[in-house]
Amino acid sequence: MTTIRDIAEKARVSTATVSRVLNMDETLSVSEETKNRIFEVASALNYVKSKRIIRRKNIGKIALVEWYSQKEELDDLYYYSIRAGIEKKAQDLGFEVVRYFQSEFGEKLQDVDGVLAIGKYSKQQQELMASLNEHLVFVDSNTLNAGFDCVVTDFNNSIGQLLQHFINKGQTKIGMLVGEEHTMDMVESLIDPRLISFKNYLSAYHLYNPNYVYIGRFTADSGYEMMKKAINELQEDLPQAFFAANDSIAIGAMKALKEAGIDVPNRVSVVSFNDTSISKYITPSLSSVHVFTEEMGKLALMLLNTFHIENKNSHPAQMITLATDFVLRDSTIN
Fold it and tell me: HTH lacI-type domain location, by residue (predicted)?
């Protein structure tokens, strides 16, 4: 049976855009050409909009707290996919999901059976949520040392794998393009764990050069500006390879390289992180670390249900770490 994901891949748009177009969302700002392409692909694939199936009577209610705004989430397939995983598993288990964006939840968390918090939160925010509802699991944030259950991605091994690939191909001058993040309340600035893994791995080989690291935002525009700056500043010393901390940054960076007449991958190879659906459709197609975002969401709900809702006894905080998959495409020397 054709799914929204199938249509998104064929139409080269996000699953969020396909869903909103097929549901006739009048608030969506997208060209008529894009809408027509989505409808044409849906028709060609014989897509039939399915009715929502309630597989069992609701057994409870969970709150889903998201550090992104609703608009930001629609522009970021990473967090959209995590949420989709949570909602699919909630439907299977019979939970009603109530969504709260940023800091709008307040005391409402007291009225649910458990809480899943997606994204980065300050210590104060973590403690506030826990004071409102002790049945709490964080997704995409390492809160183990703070005493809270969490589900995260394995950064160390995945980044080690992609850096070793560069090194094995003789590319020992390696740069990184990364975004700067803050907790939802802007109280704490966050050092991206990918940057820490990048620095530690290359330092062990005596290959880390801070002049090859550029910090901006997690957007294509920022990736473009960071790479332009690197090209202008480093000139002939421009690294042979770059690791971009997400797909958007990589797409912007490759645009800057193309405009400068720099060959990808022969002069500069590019690898990104997340491997959203757009990665395979740009030119050259983008090598990327695939993150199992839907599985992150599903496992977070299973953790919440098993150790907090079905069994309310206290337990040591635990962290589930998911492996990744390194997908090689045309933006690297393979």
Answer: 2-56
Q: What are phi and psi of 118, to 5 degrees?
A: -95, 125
Tell me: do 219 and 282 sit in the same domain. Answer: yes
Rg (CA), the chain: 21
pTM of the model as a whole: 0.79
Instruction: Give 106's Cβ-side CA count (13 Å radius).
Output: 2
Residues 83 and 231 in one domain: no
49 Cβ neighbours under 8 A, 6+ residues apart? 22
**DSSP annotation of 144:** G
Number of domains the chain is built from: 3
Question: Can you point out the beta strands (E) in 269-310?
Answer: 269-274, 287-290
194 Cα distance to chain centroid: 13
Burial 74-112 (b: 16+ CB within 10 A, else e): bebbbbbbbbbbbbebbbebebebbbbbeeebeeebeeb
Summarize pLDDT for 265-282 with one digit per residue, the tens: 999 999 999 998 889 989
Largest CA distance in the chain: 64
pLDDT of residue 54: 43
Mean pLDDT along residues 216-244: 97
Asked if residue 137 lies in contact with residue 89, where contact means CB atoms within 8 angstroms, the answer is no
The answer as to whether 198 is a domain residue is yes
Greater confidence (53 vs 58) lies with 58
CB contact at 8 A, 288 and 250: yes
Tokens representing 245 are 């901390």
- Answer yes or no: is pLDDT of 74 > 70: no
Q: What is the CATH number of the domain that holds 261?
A: 3.40.50.2300
Q: How many helices (H) and strands (E) does the chain have?
A: 11, 14
